[in-house]
Amino acid sequence: MARRVADLSTEEFEVLVERAVERRLQVWFTQVMDVLSGPDDEDDAELRPEFAAGLRRSIEQAQRGETTDLQSFRAAIGR
Question: Which of 12, 39, 78, 79 could be stapled to 45 by a disulfide with Cβ–Cβ 3.0 to 4.6 Å?
């Protein structure tokens, strides 16, 4: 059953956010490692367009200094 974010406890919300971030980072890491290791049996070893766009946005945000650490993020969500 779906629950609203407002109905979640801080711990439940934190677990969901951590899980989402970990999954996304795992996908990015896998794609980067696949590209860096070179093409094996694949004809096309290019990054998927949505991943490449997300990676560009992340790099631009980091270059502009738009970053946060885990402690600041936890403070922002009231943890």
Answer: 39
What are the CA-CA distances from residue 61 to residues 5, 56, 76 (Å)? Answer: 26, 9, 19
User: CA end-to-end span of the chain, whole Å?
Assistant: 25
Global confidence as pTM: 0.42
Tens digit of pLDDT at every position of the chain (79 positions): 678 888 888 888 888 889 888 888 888 888 888 877 766 555 555 778 888 888 888 888 888 888 877 788 788 887 7
Read off φ and ψ for residue 31, nearest 5 degrees. Answer: -65, -40
Return the axis-axis angle of helices 10-36 and 49-63, rounded to nearest 10°: 110
